[in-house]
Amino acid sequence: MLLAALAFAVLAKASTNAADKRIVLIAGKPSHGPGDHEFRAGCLLFKKCLDIVPGISSVVYSNGWPNVPDAFEGADAVLIYADGGAGHPAIQGNHSKILADLVAKGVGLGCAHYGVEIPSTNGGPQLLEWIGGYYEHLFSVNPMWSPEYKTFPDHPITRGVKAFSNRDEWYFNIRFRPDMKGITPILVATPSDKVRDGKYVYPAGPYEHVMKEKGRPETLMWAYERPDGGRGFGFTGGHTHANWGNENQLKVVVNALLWIAKAEVPAEGVQSTVTPEELKQNLDPKGRKK
pTM, whole model, 2 decimals? Predict the structure, then answer.
């Protein structure tokens, strides 16, 4: 009887410990046309993959910043997949203070696609501290192109990720911390001369400082370990929703969410296969017939 009681106590403790990781996914307001910037549908795909990982709980807040007071209670990681620039959720109201307090507690932070762009004088310094880099207007560029990801660093985020390529609005020439300190490039590819020479999505460019770096590999996703032990990442793709149907693209982001939450990433990465039917679910009603 005593042994059975002890065994039950150990199992209960293990179960409680295993369920400690909570990941908050902030999906931005509807943006762009059908099939682009599908923040809600994308975050729900991330949640689908996270929910099969033992011990992980996740929640999606749609339509921008959560409007409930306890949204970040117990959070181990936060993802912002939303429109950025001057409208970035992180710099509205008191949101920067909220995020700063979370980061100070060791909460991980990830930003995806437009969510990595933020004004250099309002939010840029914070993202440098929180995730290691950001897209800077008129310094970084946003062409539509097809980078080829062929090799990957030995890092938990890349577990199970295989070579892939797709056409998307992959940003590059990111503003990083000096000397890339604390940063591990995760997805790296070399733009062709044609890509560097423009045109970019907006502004069309080209920019001389980008053109003169022909042949230089560019970091399109990165992981960052903060001096205090906290973690962050930036992922520049994600404009085109259909690309989440690529198992490797989906896997590398979901792996990153586990990593910034300081959860163990499975040896082969998170199972990240979605069906064509699942890709069509939860799309924003943007210009679609009702």
Answer: 0.92
